[in-house]
């Protein structure tokens, strides 16, 4: 607890509250105080929970980055890196072949339309 309040101090506060507020209004005042204290406690708990989640997330991101770096270091000289490079080259070659095929189709289509216009 942030405040160092003992039983005797709490008893004194309760007696003063009873004298100031009276027996009719004291239960309602205590109920209102309890609600405020509960809201404050929930707010602090939610804030702490959110901060803890953010810290855990940052820690996990750091660990993930470390693991990725370690895997990349291990894969640089291995067969995996060679396979990856070969796969990237094949993908580039396939993309270039696809572009050439699309261009050929487009030029063939335009040739057909030109042939139809000249035959008409």
From TrEMBL:
One of its GO terms (biological process) is protein transport by the Tat complex. The chain crosses the membrane at residues 6-22. Residues 94-103 have a biased composition (Basic and acidic residues). Keywords: Cell membrane, Membrane, Protein transport, Translocation, Transmembrane, Transmembrane helix, Transport. Gene3D superfamilies: 1.20.5.3310. This is Sec-independent protein translocase protein TatB. The Tat system comprises two distinct complexes: a TatABC complex, containing multiple copies of TatA, TatB and TatC subunits, and a separate TatA complex, containing only TatA subunits. Substrates initially bind to the TatABC complex, which probably triggers association of the separate TatA complex to form the active translocon. Belongs to the TatB family. One of its GO terms (molecular function) is protein transmembrane transporter activity. Part of the twin-arginine translocation (Tat) system that transports large folded proteins containing a characteristic twin-arginine motif in their signal peptide across membranes. Together with TatC, TatB is part of a receptor directly interacting with Tat signal peptides. TatB may form an oligomeric binding site that transiently accommodates folded Tat precursor proteins before their translocation. Residues 94-120 are annotated as: Disordered. One of its GO terms (cellular component) is TAT protein transport complex. Pfam families: TatA_B_E. It comes from the Bacteria. It is found in: Cell membrane; Membrane. It is a single-pass membrane protein.
């Amino acid at each position: 607890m942030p405040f160092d309040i003992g039983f005797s101090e709490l008893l004194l506060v309760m007696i003063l509250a009873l004298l100031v507020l009276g027996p009719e209004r004291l239960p309602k005042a205590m109920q209102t105080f309890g609600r405020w204290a509960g809201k404050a406690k929930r707010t602090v708990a939610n804030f702490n929970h959110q901060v803890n989640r953010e810290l855990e997330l940052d820690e996990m991101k750091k660990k993930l980055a470390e693991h990725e770096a370690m895997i990349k270091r291990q894969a640089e000289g291995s067969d995996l890196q060679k396979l990856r490079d070969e796969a990237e080259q094949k993908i580039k070659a396939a993309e270039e072949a696809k572009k050439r095929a699309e261009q050929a189709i487009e030029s063939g289509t335009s040739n057909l339309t030109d042939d139809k216009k000249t035959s008409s």
